Amino acid sequence: MEKISKQEFYSLIKGFEQIPFTQTEAWVTAHSRHDDTKLAFFVDQLPEPLIACVAHVKKKAGLKMYYIEAEAIRYKDIKHAKLTSFFQDLQQTGVDVIEINSPMPYDATYEIALRQAGFLRPVGQFSVALSSYISLENEIKYNDNWKRNMKKAANNQLSFEVIDNAVSDDINDFIKLYNEMSVQKNVAPTFTFSSLRTLLASANFKLFFVKNEQNERIATILIHYNNNHAGLVYAASGEKAHQCAASFFMYDKLFHYLSQQHIKTFDMEKLAPSIHSTNAVFLFKNGIKGEYIVVNGEWSWHKNSFLRPLMYIAKKWFLKKIEW
């Protein structure tokens, strides 16, 4: 186990077969609010690492915690013993709690490695572990509701806008639409102008808009993409978009655009069927026929066992997070 600099980390992982978007430099920088003191960069060995990860470092109530959003892997078929050794070594870096939340598709080898390193599923899970992968190599199939709304959109003179080089006006328009949606759904944005600017300066993220007949931007989507895979990061639409089915139009045009860019799959991210209002989002996403995917999701290790239930209490009752 070696702790290295940010610059060295991103130099070493070039060419890795698996680099989740959550481990890209843009994502990590944006989510640390450009504060590298809140980050730690680890590799299993030098000079040619097989495993690497960025840990978001949190210090609260005298505890040191790592939050890790998946790992970068040189070879996808890496043996679980290597992963186990990596996570065991990570526990020896003066940390009290390690939390992992991996958006990568479920892998039994990964679970075996974590369990043999002493990790468990947390007491309660606060992230959605279900997604859907849409194949862009074949004809995309929609349910009847999607077909009706796409016909509706076709009668409203909508246009699809690809942003190749985002400027401040583009970011502000995205934030405006997202804020409008946030008020309607009573959810708080998880990004800032600065974090969006950082993401969009990277080759791994791209922004799109839908315009109405009056040339107004009424819907938007931000995606991540790398090699032949892409996925949803944020999407937003205002009241004008709802009136003309712009969101349905947007995804359909996005899929056609990505297929032309030789992207093979699109991750719809976070399918959340429930008895709550989030079920409406699930029904929307589920109208596109894809392959259901369960992700590796949440895992945790605690230096002292009493911290395990305490972390649940803190998230559930103090941070008011929703269990899934």
Helix percent reads 25-40%
Order of helix and strand elements from N to C terminus: EHHEEEEHEHEHEHHEEEHHEHEH
Residues in β-strands, percent: 25-35%
Secondary structure class reads alpha+beta
Describe the overall structure.
This protein is about 35% helix and about 25% strand. The two termini are about 35 Å apart. Strands 1, 2, 3, 4, 5, 6, 7, 8, 9, 10, 11, 12 and 13 form a 13-stranded mixed sheet that branches. By secondary structure, the protein is of the alpha+beta class. It folds into two domains: about 150 residues, Gcn5-related N-acetyltransferase (GNAT) (Aminopeptidase, 3-Layer(aba) Sandwich); about 130 residues, Gcn5-related N-acetyltransferase (GNAT) (Aminopeptidase, 3-Layer(aba) Sandwich).
SSE diagram, text form:
Elements: E1 2-4, H1 6-12, H2 25-31, E2 39-43, E3 51-60, E4 63-68, E5 72-73, H3 80-90, E6 97-105, H4 108-116, E7 130-135, H5 144-154, E8 159-163, H6 168-185, H7 193-200, E9 205-211, E10 217-226, E11 229-237, H8 239-243, H9 246-260, E12 265-267, H10 278-286, E13 291-302, H11 307-318
Parallel strand pairs: 4-6, 11-12
Antiparallel strand pairs: 1-2, 2-3, 3-4, 3-5, 6-13, 7-12, 7-13, 8-9, 9-10, 10-11
